[in-house]
Amino acid sequence: MHNYRPVTYEDRCQIYAFLQEGVPKSLIATQIGFHLSTIYLDIRRNTVTRHGYEPPRAPAQAVKRFRRCKCVYKVAAKRFIAM
């Protein structure tokens, strides 16, 4: 079973600091404790072309992505019929 934990604001601030220092992404992943693909995905999703990687903007962008999603989330209620 995998241990899932979301990327928090503090993690994003650490990623930003490492990127500013020029640390390789593979070393960032091992230092913070995420898979390398998670680091690449977070950087790609939260990079603004003019300003680069911006950790404060990430939560708002995540909400936009969630609202844009075409998936319909439903909870199916089961009926219990007494016989």
Major sheet strand order: 1-2
Count of helical regions: 4
Q: Average pLDDT value?
A: 81
**Domains counted in the coordinates: how many?**
1
| N- to C-terminal distance | 40 Å
Class by SSE composition: mainly alpha
SSE series: HHHEEH
| Estimated share of beta-strand residues | under 5%
How many β-strand runs? 2
Shape: globular
Radius of gyration: 18 Å
Helix content: 40-55%
In terms of per-residue confidence, which ranges show pLDDT below 50 for 5 or more consecutive residues? none
The largest β sheet comes out as: 2 strands, antiparallel
Overview of the molecule:
The protein has 4 helices and 2 strands. It has 83 residues and is mainly alpha-helical. The protein has one domain. Strands 1-2 form a two-stranded antiparallel ribbon. A hairpin with a 3-residue loop joins β1 and β2 (52-53). α2 (25-32) packs across α3 (36-45).
